[in-house]
Structure formats: structure tokens, C-alpha cells
Design a protein that fits this description.
The complex is a heterotrimer of chains A (169), B (426) and C (512).
Chain A: H1 3-6, H2 18-28, H3 38-49, H4 54-63, H5 68-75, E1 89-94, H6 97-100, H7 104-115, E2 129-134, E3 146-148, E4 151-153, H8 161-168
Parallel strand pairs in A: 1-2
Antiparallel strand pairs in A: 1-3, 3-4
Helix pairs in contact in A: 4-5
Chain B: H1 27-32, H2 37-43, H3 47-57, H4 69-74, E1 85-90, H5 99-106, H6 108-121, E2 126-131, H7 136-151, E3 159-164, H8 174-181, E4 205-209, H9 210-222, H10 224-229, E5 240-247, E6 253-258, E7 261-262, H11 263-270, E8 280-284, E9 293-294, H12 295-300, E10 302-303, H13 305-311, E11 319-324, H14 329-343, H15 349-366, H16 372-384, H17 393-407, H18 409-417
Parallel strand pairs in B: 1-2, 1-4, 2-3, 5-11
Antiparallel strand pairs in B: 5-6, 7-10, 8-9, 8-11
Helix pairs in contact in B: 2-6, 2-9, 3-6, 5-6, 5-7, 6-9, 14-15, 14-17, 15-16, 15-17, 16-17
Chain C: E1 4-9, E2 12-17, H1 22-28, E3 52-55, E4 62-63, E5 73-76, H2 80-95, H3 111-119, E6 138-139, E7 144-146, H4 156-164, E8 170-173, E9 180-183, H5 196-200, E10 206-208, E11 221-226, E12 235-241, E13 244-250, H6 263-266, E14 282-285, E15 288-291, H7 294-307, E16 311-316, H8 322-331, E17 336-341, E18 349-350, E19 358-359, H9 367-372, H10 379-388, E20 391-395, E21 407-412, E22 423-426, E23 435-438, E24 443-447, H11 460-465, H12 475-485, H13 494-497, E25 502-503
Parallel strand pairs in C: 1-5, 16-17, 16-20, 20-21, 21-22
Antiparallel strand pairs in C: 1-2, 3-4, 3-5, 6-7, 7-10, 8-9, 11-12, 12-13, 14-15, 14-22, 18-19, 23-24, 24-25
Helix pairs in contact in C: 2-3, 8-12
Classes of the chains: A alpha+beta (169), B alpha/beta (426), C alpha+beta (512).
Chain lengths: 169, 426, 512
Amino acid sequence: MSAAHAAEAEPYQPVFVGKTLDRLNEIIARYPAKQGALLPALWLVQEARGWISDDAMAEVATVLDTTAAHVKGVVTFYTMYHQHPVGKNFVQVCTTSCCNICGAEDVVKALLEETGAKELGATSPDGKWTVIEVECLGACGFPTPILVNDDFIENVTPEKVPELVRKYR
Amino acid sequence: MGYPQKPHPKETVVLSEYFGDPEARTFKGWVKRGGYEALKKALAMDPNAVTEEVKNSGLRGRGGAGFPTGLKWTFMPKEKKGPHYLCVNADESEPGTFKDREIMRWTPHALLEGTAIAAHAIRAEVAYIYIRGEFTEPWTVMTQALAEANAAKVFGNITIYLHRGAGAYICGEETALMNSIEGKRGNPRIKPPFPAVAGVFGKPTTINNVETLAAVPHIIKRGSAWYKGLCLSSPKSTGTKLFSVCGHIQKPGNVEVTMGFPLKDVIYEMCGGMRPGRTLKACIPGGSSVPILTKEETEKCLLDYEGVAEAGSLLGSGGVIVFDDSADMVYQIMRLARFYAHESCAQCTQCREGTAWTTKIMERILAGKGQMKDLDLLLDLSENMTGKTICVLSDSCATPVISGIRKFRSEFEDYITGKKRPVMVA
Amino acid sequence: MADLVNLTIDDVAVSVPKGTLVIEAAKQAGVLVPHYCYHPGLPVAGVCRMCLVEVEKAPKLQIACATQVTEGMVVRTRSGQAKSGRTGVLELLLINHPLDCPICDQAGECELQDFTFQEGRPSTRYSPTYPKRFNPVEDFGPDVLYVPNRCILCTRCVRFMEDVAKEPVLNVSERGDRAFVGIHPDAQLDHPWSGNVVDLCPVGSLLSKDFLHKARAWELDKTASVCTGCSQGCNVTLDLRDDTVVRIRPRANLDVNQYFICDHGRGHYRWMNRGDRVEAPLVRDGADLRAVDWDEALDRVRTLLKGAGGSAVALVSPKTSTEGLYFARKALARFNWSGAFQVVMGEEAPLAGVPNLALRAERAPNGKGAELLGYTRDYAAALKAAEKAAVVLVIDDPEAQIKTSGQVIYLGTAAPASLNAAIVLPMALMVEEDGTYVNRDGRVQRYFQGRGTPAMARPAWWVLGQLADVAPDSASAAFDVMAADVEAFRGMSYATLGLAGQRTGAGAGVPA
């Protein structure tokens, strides 16, 4: 059962109203077909809600004249869209080869420990941290790069982790 | 030398001249540095003349395939029957490559200017710059730069939009990128039709890499003869190229050199060489999808399309991954296989199943449970994954496996015979 | 005539129209290139990579489903290289496919089984210690189950819903080897044509709940037939297990239904298995109906008809064969004749991606045939006429409510509910006889006998043909008599109709 259904006591509030709808309409105008605005629309949903629920997918489908099934196929294709709620700070650590040989896996370990998330993909008990390994972040010359939400941080080492975590806590 | 390092005297600094210079990011700062003069010149030229100039320069696609840029532009329909599109591939995701990121971070206007010139040449009214979702900083910089350039109305009747990806390596494949812009899964398309016939939104489309387009204003401004003259070895490879150097290296970063420059000089001189007490073991010269070179091959390799091919690999995207003698090649090849298995779009059988299977076999070897026949199986499986699918992601997974086993077989055998202790749990 | 392109496939020379795909050209050379994602009724996807073939001068293997023929092309489907490419695909398809054929509905008609048998490896190299991909069975809709473990991601179902049904409720979800066919939690696979995904699925991943565990494929006897669900006349195959119809599947006919049938038609077979059949001719003696043999029954009919005068009315089911309707009319020819049929109406449900294909509102497979033979749709008028008619012939309408001062002859599959018939004659069901229907576009199409008749029941053409001067001795002969007599069928015969049928008037020189 989806989280959306579990919380059915609260009716779904649409994302695309007021200013967000205006922003979407401005984006739709950039493409000759409405569906072109799908990826940007999903970004707007994630910006507003932190994740993309099944109900939100259905709303996006309606707004862009496509189907919920299509939207879901797209959401599950792109790894940056969250299909479940995540911690307030979503941390993505690059562990592909170039960073790997420079110690990325130690950075992951330090982050899991320091944030209390303990396991990859799990959210820390205080709800503040989710840490995942990702494939190449495209900053191989700055090992190890990590993304904390939209902040791109280069040259992270296990030693720098405690300070970094303090900053976001 | 690209940010964060200081330029090295042996570099030929064209694209990276203003890396690390915050003022160059602004419209005013860019104009002050001679920016947008090339665009003004190009917009006054016949589109075909612009294409001809780029064709004469010998510029080849910097995204990996190395296809002649000007020639690609000529594939667009001669008679314009509807909209034409330009797609800019800023989905830089090839492990080991981080040059487009620096171009966008430091010289966003170079990309915008090149984009507008290319759009003019192919007679496109709209250009989409597809920036990978993880590139948050380049996204912010590009957004700001585009707003400033739009305010200054420099693009004539060409409109440029930014489109943000959302985490999918495969969207760097040109037709996958087009599907992604159309709001679809990033599945590569079967060809034909080719993009110049039916690309994004089914219309004639040209797609170019960031570095390719960033070079275009220089060609227009300084002429194709100048660009063509930038050549140290093969006349088929001209201009300068950014090489992203990373891995076991003292000073990682981007190096800009003239085509044909020796790889060993890049590694040992410009990037500071190996860490103390370490020696070079291997190098992947063109991003993770190309064959691994041994130390000997690396030291003989000249950095241009032909030179790297002669050394036994491919120039690819110019992502130079350096491994010293501490590197566990088996583990690193497993990481690459896992990367491709994670990124496979799931369309073609060989790729969807083969990348995952390859990863499992590699993991088993690393867990000390491999058998000698697994190496033959890996080679056979890799052969089966090569040249049989819609795009080359499957081939890219097979390539490091094949070259890895051929060149570093003893490291695999050490795990299998128990000479080396397992590093993974099966 | 389209431009022809000459090529050779496995050393067989063929000429095919320009633009033909190699996989289709190969069929002309008698070669079936193994494939999964390709289906002639769907847009080309080129994703399973199974149909790899060697094309001379091409640097690598090509997929036959997305490669167009060129002049002088030399294709080798059985070369070592081509075969090893396909064997490789099969091995990869099987690494995550459960070997649960003994409990899989598709076994026996599974393309993965067939091609693995044909050119797969004798055993896998996939370690038995690796877990196979697992996802629970999903309930997709009213009649469709999805077993993701068996799925080979060919995407035929997704493309059917998207490009043919134009109701894209299915998707490919996730990526890499985690991918599966998905559906939004709020969506249902309940489009009126959605059952086709079960036929399209080359493996046992999409299953019909209706057919679930009913029969093994090799237990089925297949009969070419025509759907009785509406007036579209979709070509179908009836699958019978021990004389019971257990499944209806589409039979390709590019002019009528391409490769598809609707769910209404797919489920419209239970009436063929009804148990309350009339099994012997019955004649009325006073208040009772008495079973008699055919000779006596037919004598009674002849006597009745001879003794009557004035008007006669035929009230017929539009599921009756054209041949039966013809001889019914002929039997009543010397009367002031009128005939009508009643059409049950339902909702029209088009298949958006195929022109002129819909579940038609008229749920009558042979209304057009009846009309060509002079029957009308004005059932009410016929009922009125029946009141004063001397003879009323009712064909296979057990629910008919008729008031008449004349005599009622009833010919049908099930006993009439409330008719005070003088004679009741047992009739074969369409699956028990050879016959023809005429679809709404005037296409005359044959259906074939799939099982024997129960007890003494006989086809309508046989029963009513016995009343003619020269009784036909086969359905084919019955048709010939009609074709010689009725303009619309002129020039046609069972031989010319074949399996695909012909438009009325075709024999008379009007192009089909």
C-alpha cells in the first residue's frame, strides 16, 4: 500500500495552484508538446513536497494531459525523484571507480555513522538524514563529491564529515 | 590547467582560459573578454558559411564519438519545412569526465554563445541545453547567465532553454536525451530515423556536446585555419581538448592541450605524477567506457583520436582515470560493471541482463568464490554484450571487463586461487 | 503495384515490396526468425534483440525486425554468428526466468520454450546460487494477471495499450534488471480490448483469469471460426478441450480485425457449452411433445407446410448460418413470406488504433447475411404478422414470445421456453457445423466445425435443406445452391472464401 493511501485521512492537496501553477505554465510554453514539461513538473512537485507520491503523479498526469502510468514509468526511471519520503537532508555520495579508489566508501561509512542513518537508504531516527550511494556525480577530480539536497560539496574526506554534518543538523 | 590548479606552461589554453575567474561568469565580464563577438559575426553570416567554417576547422565531437561537427550540421534538411531543434548535451556522466561541468561553472556564456551560433548554422529557432540533474551548481550559474544574456538580447530570434535531467547516465546518449526532453523515460531509440531527420519532438535535430559548442565561438572568431593549425600529430584531430584527470594522481583536474599531446606528460608533469612511493599501473584514457591501458601503453599514448586508438583504446570523452599500484583492478572493474548495471535503461536483453550478471560474477570472484572458468564466462558474456544492442551502454560494460581480464588476468586469478583474501561477502 | 526489391534469405530468392522488414521478407522465404518484441500489429521496438541475423556487408549483426530490405541484400539467419547471437539472448532471457513451465499456463504455446528448444543452450551458466528476480503477482484488471517473474520485458503489452488501444495504462517501471511492467495503483487494465495483451505476451507473464489453469495448451483442439459477439465478424480460433469450448483467441485477418479481438467476444463462448440442448426431434401429440426420428419429424413438417396456406413468418436468430437462413426462406417460398431477426444492442467499443474495428453495438454476427436474404430488422412487424400467419418458423430463439393462430415450427439448440410449438427440431450450434456469416461490411466468412452435434441435432441447412427438391449433402453444397440463387453470393464458394472470407459482390466483378 502506498504511503498516499495510508494517509488517506488527509485529502490530497494539489501542488499546481497559484504561483506553482504559474511557474509550470511558463515551463509548458517552452515545449511544443505539453509532455515536454514532465521532468520540470516533477521537480516542482519534489521541491514542494520533498517526494513524489502516487497522488502527485496522478495530478501531474492530469495537468500535462498524459496518464498516471506514464508518469510513474518516468518517475521510476530517474533516480533523483523520490518515491518515498526521505530525510530532511538527502545525501548522495559518489562511489563509482574514480572516487572509489580515492576512498569514497570510507566517506559513506563516516556519513552513515555521523548522521545516525546507519544503513544506506534508511532515514535516521531524528528524520533528518538519508544517505545513499550514487553512481558518478561528474566531479571525479574532486573526490569525494557529495550532494546534500541541492548543495554540491567537493573533496569530502572522512575527517571532514563531522563538521559537515554539524553544519546541516 | 583547469580550476582548481594553476595553468601549466605546456597547456594550450583556449576553453579553460577563464576557469576560476568569477567575473567571466557575468555577461559584462564575458563581453569585456571578447565574448559574443563571434556570435555577432556568425549571425551576420549565411548559416551554410558558418557550417563550412566549422567543417574546415576539423572540429570533432567532444562528447565521445568524435564525429566531425561541421559535417553533422550538414545532415540537417536543406529545405526547412518546419521547426529545427538544437539539443546541447550537458548530461556529462561518463565516469572520469568533468570538463563540461567546469565549462558551465566558469564560462557559461561560452556555451551559450556556441549554442546560439550552432542554432543559427542549422537554422534552429529553439535550443535545449540538457543539464544533468546532479549538476546543481552549473545549473544555477547557467540559469543566471542565460537570464543576463536574454536581457541583453544577444541571441537574435534564437531561444535557448535549460532542461534539467533527474539522474540517468543513459540520457547522455543522444536519442535518450531527446526522449527525456519529451518527458519520457530516457530510452535510446533505434536508428534510423537519425536525429537530423526526426529528432526531438519528431523534428530535425542536431545534438552537440558542451565542449564542442564552447569551441565554436573561437573558430568563428579566429578562423578555421587557426584551429586546424592546433595539431601535434594526426591531421584528423585538430584543436584543443580538455582532459579530466582523476584517480591516483597528485593534482587532479582539467588539462587543456593541443590534440596529439603525450598522455605521459599530462600524467607525470602537468598533474604532478603519482603519489609518493607509488607507480603507475593502468590508465583509462577516455572515460570508463573505453579499454584500459597498461603502464607501457599509457606512456606511449598520444592524446588524439588516432593516437589513443593506436595505443589500444579510445579518446572518448577525455576522462583520464589513473590507477597506481595500490589499485585493485578486479574491484574497480566490478564497480564499473555495477555502474552500468545500475544505469541500464532495461530495453535490450543483453544489456539489462548482461550488465547485472557480469556484476554478480565479479562480486563472486571478489568474495573468493570464483572459478577459473568464470573468466572465460565473463569474456564470452562480454562478447555477447558487444555490438548487439540499440546503444553502446552494454558494450561499455563489456569493454573494461575484456581489457581488464586480458591485461590484468593475474589479479583475477589471485582471488580465485585464494592468493588474495576476499574483499566482499557473497 | 509497389516497387519490388530482390534479396536472398538463407539462399532463397524473394521479391518483396520496398520498405518490407527483413523479418517479414523471411516469412516469404519460409524462414521464421525467432523474435519476441516484434509483432506485426505493433510499432517496432527493436528491444529484445532476439531476431539477430547476418546481413552481408554489415559490420555487425542486424535485427531483422527493424531492418528494411534493400536490393541485392544477402541475409543469413542460420549462420554461426547469427545463431550464437540469438543463443546468447536466450541464455540471458532465462537467467531471471523461473523454470516453472509445469505450472505455467503458457507452456506448450510459449515462444521462450519454443525458441530455447530450437536454438538455446543445453544448460545455463548462471550460477544456481544467484537469486532470480522476484516480484509478486499483480492483479492488472478484470481478466488479466501479471506474473512479473516470467516477464521478458518485450513491451508488447505496453505498446498495445499505448499505440493500439490508445489508453496507456501500462508502463515499464524501474530500469536495468529491476525493471518490470507496471501500472499506476489507481489504474486498471479494463479497456474493452485489454485481453489482447494476454495473446500478445510471448511468455506466461500475462494470464487470463478466465482461462487460468483450465487446460494445457497441448490438450486443446483448435478450430478456425468467426466471433459471434457482434456484427464486426472478427476471425477467431476456438480452443476446445474434450468438446468444451474453453477459450477464444483472435485469428489474424488484416481486413477485419488484424490480430485482435475485444474482451466481449473473448468471453462470448459459454453459450456454446450450454447443457440444456434439444437432443431429438419432437412432435406434438395433443398436450405432449413426443420424441421421434428425423424421417417422421420431417414428414410432419412437410405435411404441415403442405396443408397450410396464406402467409408464413420466420423469426430467426442472427447467429444462424447464412446457409440455414437461405434454406429457411426457401422452405417457406410458396407462402406470402416475411422474415425478421431481433438484434440485441449494447455499447460500441472501438479499438482506437485500428480503422474500422470495434465491438459493434449490434450484437449479431449474421444480421447482414439475414438482410441479404430478405430478412428484416423489423421484429415487431414480424411478430404482428405472425399473429395471423398460417405458419411461424422460429430458429433458435428459445425466449421468443409469439401469439399466433397458425402452427409453430421451432428449430433450435435449446428447448423453447413458452412456445406452443407443433414441432421442435434439434439444431447444431455454430461450433458443431460448417457455415458462413456475413459481417457488417458484407464480408462473407466461413466458420468451421469443431465438435460433433449432441445426439440427433443437425445443422440448420441440413434440416431445412431436406425440405428442398434436392437436399444438399454438405454445408459447402448448401452454400453453392445459395450462391447460384442469390446475387450477393454469386461466384463464391467455400474454396474461394478460404480462411479470410470475401466481400459480397466480389464474385460478380466488384473488387473486394
